[in-house]
Prior knowledge:
Blueprint: H1 2-18, E1 27-31, E2 40-45, E3 48-54, E4 60-64, E5 78-80, E6 83-85, E7 92-94, E8 100-102, E9 122-125, E10 128-131, E11 156-164, H2 168-176, E12 191-201, E13 204-213, H3 217-220, E14 231-240, E15 244-248, E16 252-262, E17 265-274, H4 286-318, H5 329-359
Bound molecules: FE2/S2 (inorganic) cluster (FES) and fe (ii) ion.
Amino acid sequence: MELETAQRSQTIYIAAREAEANPNHWYAIARVDKLKPGKILTAKFWNQPLAIFRDETGQIRILDDACPHKGVALHKGVVNGCHLVCPYHGWEFEGKSGECVAIPYLTQGQKLPKASVRSYPVQERYGLVWVFPGDPALASERAIIDIPEYGDDDWFLVRLEVSFGSHFSICNENAIDLFHGYLHRKYQVWYDTKLVKIQESPEMMQAQYDVAYQNPLASLFGLSKWGVKETTGQITVRYPYPNLTSSLGDISHVYLLRLPASNTESQSFGLFFSKVKIPKILAPFKPLIRAALRHFVLVKVVQQDIEMNENEQEIYENDRDRPFVEVNPAIFSLRRLIVRQDEQYKASINSTLQKVKVGKPQ
Ligand code: FES
Ligand SMILES: [Fe+2]
């Protein structure tokens, strides 16, 4: 029985590490404030490089970052009105449709060839650019994660973007598994973790933990009362695929918006909200407080996570059959969800292919 359980957990472990990201969701891909006029950003969703720019009407456009002429990266080109111009021979692509609309050296009477680059549904929300990399027909059916704290003055926001050299299952396991408070013990972020409850549905799983913490900064963040040494609380970590959220009551809410760049690279756009009251007199120093919290607290803690995650990825790549033992049921639940999403997407592609085959004349 034990052997069977171990085998099953090893199977789900490998399936999660090998799972592909389900593109039929909205993914945060870039920060809006980095998209200055004329600037073309580049980012990757699951091995596909993308070029992101704002056209002259103010609309953000996302195209595959590869020119259909010779494959050159379009983000190295320039924005011309509503077009993206390839840096090599100057072919121009319309931002919305991705169609080639001009080739500067066509001779008179020579027709424009049918050439286009894939364009993606895009939205701008929470100061972020969001892309829908999957079936565009599903983009309007799917919602971007709700972040009600955004723009609410009661919440103090610190943002942090990080890159992990690891598969998205590894960084999400890191966030769902609060038993790794040990790693951050120097900062006393949290400890004495107890898993209270797990809930699972086809699109989401969540785990509730009881924790204790006593970081001196906790009072500053509003996470504990002044003068109290140790505080206990309940943290709920949710994984509404593909993003992660974590909340400590109604005083700290964290959103980790994940971008799976490839099977060994992930990006995270972190929004850390806390209900800290900054006295009016200190209001002009908000950006400074934000920067200090980011650099002296968040970055330090997240660096520890990144190091562990990348080490885990490296070990996995060196020996994919190495067996591991897991004891946190929340991890199993998260792995099942990741595998389910992968299977769901592959099944949707297969059914589309079947329909195409059926519709094809013999
Ligand atoms: S490679 Fe892009 S225009 Fe030639
Ligand atoms: Fe951590």
